[in-house]
Amino acid sequence: MTRFWSIAFSAFAVAFFALLLGIFVVQSIPAWQHSGMGYVTGSRWFFRTHQFGALPMIYGTIVVSGVALLLAAPVGLASAIFTAEYLPRKARLAVKVLIELLAGIPSVIYGLLGILLLRNWIYDLFARFDISSGDTLLTAAVLLAVMILPTVVTLSDDALRGVPGAQRHAARSLGLTRAETICTVSLRQSARGLVSALLLGLGRAIGETIAVFLVVGRQDNNLPERWLSLRPLLESGQTLTTKLGGAEANIAYGDPLHWAAMMGLGLLLLAIVIVTTIGGVWKKVGHDA
Amino acid sequence: MRILKSSSIKSLATCLASLAAATFADAGTLKINGSTTVNLPVAEAAENLRAEKKMDIQVDTQGGSSGGISMLGEGLVQLGMASKHVSADDRAKFPKVTFNEIHIGEDAVALIVAKDVWDGGVHELTKQQVRDIYEGRVTNWKDVGGKAQKIVFLNKEPGRGTWEVFAHWAYGDPKKAPQVSLPEVGGNEETRNKVGSTRGAISQLSSAWADEKKVFALGIKGDDGMAVLPTNENIASHAYPMSRPLFVLTDGEPKGDARVLVDYLLSPAGQALVRKHGYLSLDQLAKPAAGN
Question: How many angstroms separate the CA atoms of B244 and A79, rounded?
Answer without folding.
Answer: 55
